[in-house]
Amino acid sequence: MPHPAPTPRTIHRSGPLTGRVSVPGDKSISHRALMLSALAVGTSRIEGLLEGEDVLATAAAMRQMGAEITRDEDGVWHVHGVGVGGLMQPAQALEMGNSGTSTRLLMGLIASHAITATLTGDASLSARPMARVIEPLSQMGADITASPGGRLPLMVRGMNPAVPISYTLPVASAQVKSAILLAGLNTPGITRVIEPVATRDHSERMLAGFGADLTVEQTAEGRVISLVGEAELKPQHIVVPGDPSSAAFLVVAATIVPGSDILVTNVGLNPTRAGIFTALRLMGADITEQDARTVGGEPVADLRVRHAPLHAIEVPPELAPSMIDEYPVLFVAAACATGRTVARGAHELRVKESDRIAAMVAALGAIGVATEEFDDGLAITGSGGAPLPGGGTIASLLDHRIAMSLAVAAMVCAGPVTIDDVAPVATSYPIFFATLDTLKETTELAAS
Ligand code: S3P
Question: Residue 335's closest CA among 277, 388, 393, 282?
Fold first, then answer.
């Protein structure tokens, strides 16, 4: 897939951040809302859908397979589903862009339908491993032909009826779990996934919300999720909570920029996602929850964040599944802390939109932060709250979270920092820079 021209951006040291902002809809929940609505019988309504490129790739694919998806002027999405088993043969290849979640979850859906689909993606996605989903979906009967190394482009020839499996996850991956459960929707019998380590549970919550017969048990082997196949899903009205992964950038920015005091509203705090806030609090961050409530079956609160001095920690490895996407921005917080932060047990960072361990070693190095690289993590020597040197150019490597993490770091750098390409930010948080500007302007207005 051709890439658009890179969009470089230079970021200067920031004054205090103040004011109140909300974050866009949760990316994981948005993908699932579109997919399950497209499989329900009737019309679902989705409010707060993330309108980032990754989610739009899912919407386009579901349309190609027969769902009618529209957006009204108020930003509410309407999805007229085809029913489980009703997906249609797409006429063209499904373009997944940068989105691993779209790819892996859709592979699951296609696997148990009598259709054949080719999935393609950008350079980042085409370097990511797909064997982790090919293996269980092949056991269910799908015939998958991948590019060398189990990569994209690949072709999935679905099997109908597929064979139910009982599968223990070899890697802690919500995408693999969800791919199997989505395949199980159109498979006779009971499909079972055993996860020794719990991962984000949005699929389970939403499947139950759509009326699927799903049970979750905690056993000695781990969490066992059982889904009764040939399900009939009932259309829903879904309200997508704000994305904690997006909120994390604002929370770290306010924590490290002296004088900041912000309110981030509507932040999803599902315990399987909120590890970053636990880790930051262990470092001394001042984050308080206000107006705790439930939105769309998920816990949500507003977060008040005030600047606070941070100290180094050993990041508890058991937090890894609940903050896997937040390590890059946690490393930025660590770069401002007193002492040496060590994060291990996060080998999965090597296979995200970029190799996030190598990418952060290079990026932090370019702004003058000392790191030590491990196979499964990183140690970062913090500045003790002093400005970071900055002055370098960062490669974002088609990885939205590397670009946003370094944009946050740049706010406490003495010298300006150039990010070679911030276009990838649009995959998950299109209004990221506008939101940062709002927080800076609130302070400037108050001062004038
Ligand atoms: C996601 C699961 C995680 C995460 C990704 C979104 C999901 O990936 O990194 O951004 O929506 O299921 P893994 O399942 O590969 O850990």
Answer: 388
Q: What burial class does residue 12 get, using C-beta atoms within 10 Å of its C-beta: 0-12 exposed, 13-18 middle, 19+ buried?
A: exposed
Check residue 2 and give its pLDDT: 54
Q: Is 4 exposed, middle or buried (0-12, 13-18, 19+ CB in 10 A)?
A: exposed
CA dihedral 94, 242, 78, 425 (to 10 degrees): -40
**Rounded (10°) CA dihedral 171, 424, 75, 277:** 50
Q: Just give the CATH number of 9-25+241-447.
A: 3.65.10.10
Enumerate the domain spans of the chain.
9-25+241-447, 27-239
Whether 111 and 132 have beta carbons less than 8 Å apart is answered as no
Report strand pairing: 237-239 vs 41-47.
Answer: parallel
Same fold, 9-25+241-447 and 27-239: yes
CATH of domain 27-239: 3.65.10.10
Catalytic residue among 26, 201, 302, 325: 325
Residue 95: Cβ within 10 Å count:
17
Low-confidence ranges of the chain (pLDDT < 70): 1-3
178 C-beta closer than 6 A to ligand 1: yes
Question: Residue 73, class by beta-carbon neighbours within 10 Å (0-12 exposed, 13-18 middle, 19+ buried)?
Answer: exposed
Residue nearest to atom 5 of ligand 1 (CA): 101
Under a CB-based contact definition with an 8 Å cutoff, are residues 215 and 288 in contact?
no
Q: What is the pLDDT of residues 254-288, one digit of tens each?
A: 999 999 999 999 999 999 999 999 999 999 999 99
DSSP H/E element including 42: strand 41-47
Query: Does the annotation mark 291 as catalytic?
Result: no
Which amino acids are annotated as binding site for 3-phosphoshikimate, given as ranges? 27-28, 32, 173, 175, 325, 352
The residues, any chain, with a CB within 8 Å of residue 445's CB and separated by 6 or more, are: none
What does the alpha-carbon distance between residue 320 and residue 333 come to, in Å, rounded to a whole number?
A: 16
